[in-house]
Input
Amino acid sequence: MVLVDVIFLDIDGVLLPFGSAKKSSQEENFKCDDCIFPNSTMDALTKLLQKVGNISLTMKGINDQQQTIKGNPVLVLSSTWRARQEFIADILGSFKGYVAFVQQQEPEVEQIWKPHLDAFFGIVDPCYHATRHDEIFSWVRDNATRKHCHKNSSNNKRKRRTPQELECTSTVVAFQVRSWIALDDEDLVNVEEDRVEVKAIPHVVKTESSVGLTLHDVDLGVKLLEDQMNAFYQLT
Output
């Protein structure tokens, strides 16, 4: 059983701040011709993936031997961009363009991004339309423990598939959600008028729509995930 630390990823207002269209005065804030998202938010997401992967917890294992637990970040697309496969392809293409450019100066970036470039670990059901809070919590309930397909390259040559297709021809791995956060510019706590979802507080990283993901958001996200991991292993 593989334990995963899920990062739900919104696009608009998180990776793509409102008012940051590429062909604007901020064009210098893009690293490459294929990059949809500005440097600032991509650098922040890279730092988040790196820091979560570097989380290290120590606990007693068999025969009281010290056991080190490491973070294992995975990306699940929660944005409305999930509804169109060509939009998903654009996101992944932008990720690859960013990595190809940055790794010239920062070789470690390729290793950080390697597990996330070919496909998202998961996609919130594109056929389920509700509040973002309900969409994400539905995915968590449905996927708390299940099997995940690692698709090989032959799948990428198939004709276009719908986003919800999960068939694969390679490795199938059982996974369990150990911790999760949602990066979103929507309020996932104060969901609707007279509806406050306190249970979301330990999972929410709310970004400023006009700014997108920042290093401050990253620090909060890492803390939330680490707190959940500690609780998972009953270390706190």
User: Anything to note?
Assistant: Strands lie at 2-9, 56-60, 66-70, 73-77, 122-123, 145-150, 171-184, 190-192, 195-196, 204-206.
